[in-house]
Amino acid sequence: SAAPTAGLHFTPALLGALEAMGVQIARVELVVGLDTFKPVSAADPREHQIHSERYRVPSATTEAVAEAKRVVAVGTTSVRALESAATSGEAEGRTRLFIHRPYEWKTVDLMLTNFHLPRTTLLMMIDAFVGPRWRHLYDTALHGGYRFLSFGDAMLLDRSLN
After folding, report:
1. What is the average pLDDT score of the chain?
2. Confidence tier at 1 by pLDDT (50, 70, 90)
3. In this structure, what are the phi and psi dihedrals at residue 71, rounded to the nearest 5 degrees?
4. What is the β-pairing status of strands 29-30 and 110-114?
5. How big is the CA angle at 78 (ends 77 and 81), to the nearest 5 degrees?
6. C-alpha Rg value of the chain to the nearest Å
7. Which of 27, 83, 151, 159 is least buried, going by the fewest C-beta atoms within 10 A?
8. CA-CA distance, 40 to 35, in Å (whole number)?
9. In sequence order, what DSSP letters do the residues of the chain get, joined into one string?
C-alpha cells in the first residue's frame, strides 16, 4: 500500500492551529494499492479498469460532512473514500469508484493534493474536479519547478471556480 502523502504537508502544529481557528478535522480511511499509480493504458482512458480498495468513513465524519459549509479533502484517497461512501450509501466496504469526467460530485468542495503524473487515474480525478484548467495549473507547476509525486508540492483546488 501507499502512504497518504498529501497529509504529510500537515504537521501537528499546523493541525492544532487549524483547529484553534475553528476548522473541524475529520478522518477517513482508504487502503491504497499500487494500482492507484498504474498508468492508464486503455485507448479510451474512461475504460481503464480500476482496482478495488477498502474504505471506511466513520459516522462522526459523515455527521461533520453533513454539517460543514464546505468540505476540504486532503488527498485523492480521502476524496475517493468520501465520494465512495456518498455514492454507495455505505460507510465502509470496497470501492471501484473511478472518478473522471463527467462526474457528479456529492461531497467534496475543495481538494488539497500533490501534483500527479500524466495518464493516471489521479490526474483524471483532478480533471473531473477542476475541468480543463488543470492544464494551466500544471503548466505553472512545471515552469515554476514544483516537485511532483508523493513528496512533492501540493495545490489547493476549488471545484466551484469552474
Report:
1. 88
2. very low
3. -105, 120
4. unpaired
5. 85
6. 15
7. 151
8. 10
9. ----GGGGG--HHHHHHHHHTT------EE---GGGGSPP-SSSGGG--PPPEEEE--HHHHHHHHH-SS-EEESHHHHHHHHHHHHHS-SEEEE-----SS---SS-SEEEEE---TTSHHHHHHHHHHGGGHHHHHHHHHHHTPPPSTTS-EEEEEGGG-
Pairwise CA distance, residues 153 & 94, whole Å: 29
Report the percent of the chain where pLDDT is more than 90: 61
- The closest of 86, 95, 96, 99 to 157, measured between CA atoms, is 99
CA distance linking residue 95 with residue 157, whole number of Å: 24
Q: Which of 48, 57, 46, 123 is nearest to 84 (CA)?
A: 57
Residue 34: is its pLDDT beyond 70? no
Q: Which of 11-15, 40-44, 46-50 has the highest mean pLDDT?
A: 11-15
pTM reported for the whole predicted model: 0.88
CB 49 within 8 A of CB 14: no
Residue 130 and residue 128: Cα distance in Å, rounded? 6
